Automatic annotation (TrEMBL), chains A, B, C, D:
UniProt KW Transmembrane helix keyword: no
Species, as recorded: Falsiruegeria litorea R37
Protein name (Swiss-Prot/TrEMBL): Gentisate 1,2-dioxygenase
Keywords: Dioxygenase, Oxidoreductase
Superkingdom, taxonomy of origin: Bacteria
Length: 345, 345, 345, 345
């Protein structure tokens, strides 16, 4: 167990040439790289994006690049461990800040990766998913799941900004990522399902034989409902902060196949020290101020800021004021693969 | 196929005696009884119970029988097909009207059958299920599922009445019905889960590894939420009446293993002619007036009335005024057995 | 808790008349009947049917009643607790001994209840289920599940006898039992799925998108495979007898929605004292001799005999010789209803 | 839709510097890379490894590197698209040829990725998984699933070689891959579950309440059973080749969370032109000779050879002689992510 493994240099050059010729490579010199002892050794590093710094850059992108030349006008939040330009924030999570200006529209497409948008600022923006019109209000979660047509529009007067969270890195790595483009969709003239079919917990449209529920029946999770629910949890939660998972109301499953979303509420001064988790994650602040340590790195955060943590990071949150934060994570994927894990600190 | 089958009388008496001696009986004379052609031949008949008629009888039961001598002071709604005294309203559904007077309590027990209570009148009543205190307000559904301790109490000043719906007939027939008695339970000092954990559709307490959701996480479905959701459905439902199934918010499954509950809203003058269903069912009127035909029998109903229909009944509803009705049915059981069926009329 | 409940006679006759008039009945005088203390009080009693006694009666039925006058020429094993004539052996299990003579056929039908046939004697019999021809050899289990067309035929020279096990009582009680008749089916010219698609454990026809597995993909469980598997289990099972559940090879679920089947092998002299189970059950002896006590009643059994036990029966088996027995039980139904239970003795 | 998107060079250098400073990158210049039109653009290329060429290299590794210096003495089959040295054969599949010499043992460890070994040559090798001893015979599949302790040993006299198939690339990309080392395990003195508990299709150890089946109950799939089953399928399969999926006998699910295994049998001269699949795959030849085209590249294969194909490859097989091939693919993972797809050619 303790003896060091052989290295590539231990092998005769002629043999190494033969291996190369045959298209094979010895495992043992690479063994500890691909299977490190005891825990993964992530490349990913904690990242922090201050919204006040990001906003002018995003507005400038609006001046420099018309939406027609961008399709989606997004600044991608690059994992510091991989360097700026990386199309991912952690091993599995892509984050991007998207701008839509009044009167603009982002054309319809559908793709294998799934997205959730968290609305950051502005009113009048909307998404259309399979012809369902989804208003985008601050703090709302709006889903555009794998394979569903979606476009975006803007009826308001001020810039609309949202944070895109996608499982794009997983699909890119699996060589499964692609998109199909189409025309803007017609919009059904009625409110979205969160306002009609799924207006109350524990109620669902009556089941008819053969008519299966849509795979993603609820595409918008209005912030007003989430905040009210968190406040109620918090009132009866004792010392623990309030935490609610966003779920599919027809199945109780996570809202996307790979990514999970958890709404958190901190009372002023409240702190949380979660266990070490095998999931990587991102945090987006809806309201409030606080400080978070990620593997010793201190992050002071305020409204609309975003920050990330790699797998098994030691995370400690401390809220200054009452604060609402959404945690994005890949536990659903890890559950499906059977290896999600929490370790005591 | 068309030849009539042999009858018992076709067999020699000596042979019939031998069969009896051996503890066996020929199937063929009974074949069409147990396997009728094309559709079941239910014993169950449509029933109707006017609340105004029932109420004084129930109050008199309160005078005649102290709760200590009754445990549960209930008048059972007997299927007319089986005759008064039958402990069932349809083949699978038991219905009883229960009275609790101010200051009374019904002692704790738990049993294999499951119950849902629909609150008919009165305020101040409550149920305690596994130490969770569940207020009972008009129109609320309150669950006491299989195996969970439950008792009832009353802090108010007027009689409290509720309709009990149980799958008791199934358990009695399966020789699986029994109860265990216990003491009144302590009550946790906080609102029930419908007020805390399941306050909004699409949100659930954050999942922790190893901590599984309770099998019946939501034990109370407040009427206020149901009515609001129905109104919203109705506003966008076009010609169809609004219908919502009560579901487990953690799984989307029906709220009981055998019985399903569906809340219906009729606009004034709206009608519904559902397909013929293999499920038997009961209807309880929360508010409003209307007329329903069940296999040709006309039932004029008003607030707090209850009526039933056997399997494959031809049912036509016609609301006079805006009306809210809860349908109780055994589709969940039939789904599990794999034979639930709807037929066009 | 200990005070006796009120009785019907405690109520004034006038009030009782009013209740009857209103179609309602007080619960409390019936309370302990429908919800007895601590455990069910089954009507079902243990039964025992000696095959040597049954066989001549069955053959005489063959002489007295042509198959055209019987459709299915069956002697039903009536629960002694309900008396001869009862179309059930326990609360949930129907058992019948069926005879098919050379050259006869039993016409096609399909029905809501499901059946498993255990072949008792004879060769040349076969069932056709949805056009799949299923040979019937001694000890085989042959399924005719809910809703699937089935007929029976006989190409051999000696009488064929099998034991039918159905969930008929459940469907009759639920008023869900009915049949549809049809013509004899064409037979696909190839062996059944147990000889082709499901020839080895852990292998299944390759999955194609959209092509779902049949709900009941394996309709015949050949005895030769079962005996070989039991012998292997027994060789490595230590003191415990070998017990294998019959399962759906595509899902691992029980082979019928309500009934489960377990093959048991006893070494000579081996005994078993299972826990008290909430399921009722029947035992059919494939080979061997032994003695079983059911709630104190002693049953000495030999090849092809059948015996039963009610819910929560105290059962003790003692094999004289090496013995193979099939246990039929309703645990699958009780699992679905959520109340299956085992108690230590 | 058709207008070309803006490029990085279209943006002023000062702005690009600011973006870099802020840790963000514009999406649109990268948009078509991460979301190509219509289908993925895989880096992976078809690979082919002739066993006759590989074998001497593997034996030489045995001479050059003692197992103590290698832990696992494996030559990794590197995707030609990524170049020799790549620790993966496709986007999701790792393949390695492993050598164990007589008397050697590979020490115990467990890790998050899962493996299946397909035995290529030699007798006397065995794996121990959670103390269950699994003999390794030619053509057998032996599982060492995620999280289960495993070591390997060799009681024979000739080299033993097997092909390792792992989902390692997925775990590496997710930063979830790690291992824990331990001592050689004790071995239970009885045959593995394929010889005892899962000896026949449609039978499983009797279910006891609370005792859940192991997540991976069957760890060895003996080739003899697979070949016999394929021959039977083939005899009744008509023009289609015989294809059987390896499944968990307790659930019918694929044998690993991410990877699927399908055994294929070609009659002499038989061909197959499967649809374009979104899964990537590898083929390992158990017996026989044939020719396969992958995206126009011709591969002539014989016994023990291995070859691969990227996602959506156009694959055409033509067997010269009767041939048995195992297909390894990532459909289970794609099913879980909800995007597995087949396209007509
Ligand atoms: Fe998109
Ligand atoms: Fe009760
Ligand atoms: Fe039948
Ligand atoms: Fe390993």
């Amino acid at each position: 167990m303790s003896e060091p493994l052989g290295e590539l240099e231990d092998l005769p050059q002629a043999y190494r040439d033969e291996l190369k010729q045959a298209g094979v490579a010895p495992l043992w010199p690479m063994m500890r790289n691909v299977l490190p002892h005891g825990a993964p050794q992530p490349v990913t590093q904690a990242g922090y994006w201050n919204y006040d710094a990001l906003r002018p850059l995003l507005l400038k992108a609006g001046e420099l690049t018309p939406v027609e030349k961008a399709e989606r006008r997004v600044l991608v939040l690059s994992d510091p461990g991989r360097g700026t330009g990386a199309m991912q924030a952690t091993a599995s999570i892509y984050l991007g800040m998207q701008l839509l200006l009044p009167g603009e529209s982002a054309p319809a497409h559908r793709h294998t990766p799934s997205a959730v948008r968290i609305i950051v600022e502005g009113t009048g923006g909307y998404s259309v998913v399979d012809s369902e019109r989804l208003p985008m209000e601050e703090g709302d979660l709006v889903l555009t799941p794998s394979g569903e047509w979606h476009d975006h529009g803007h009826d308001g007067n001020e810039p609309v900004v949202w944070l895109d969270a996608l499982d794009l890195p997983v699909f890119v790595q699996l060589e499964g990522s692609y998109a199909v483009e189409g025309d803007l969709q017609p919009q059904r003239n009625r409110p979205d399902a969160s306002e009609v079919e799924y207006k109350a917990a524990g109620l669902a449209p009556t089941r008819r034989p053969g008519h299966r529920a849509r795979r993603f029946p609820m595409l918008r999770y209005p912030w007003t409902g989430t905040e009210a629910a968190l406040r109620q949890m918090s009132a009866y939660g004792g010392d623990e902060i309030a935490e609610l998972d966003y779920v599919n109301p027809e199945t109780g499953e996570d809202i996307l196949p790979t990514l999970g979303f958890t709404a958190m509420m901190f009372g002023a001064g409240q702190s949380q020290k979660p266990p070490l988790r095998s999931s990587s994650c991102a945090f987006h602040v809806i309201k409030g101020h606080g400080r978070t340590e990620v593997d010793g790195q201190v992050i002071d955060w305020g409204p609309k800021d975003t920050f990330t943590a790699p797998v098994f990071a030691a995370i400690s949150h401390q809220a200054e004021s009452e604060a609402f934060v959404i945690r994005i994570h890949d536990r659903p994927l890890q559950d499906k693969l059977g290896y999600y894990e929490e370790r005591a600190r």
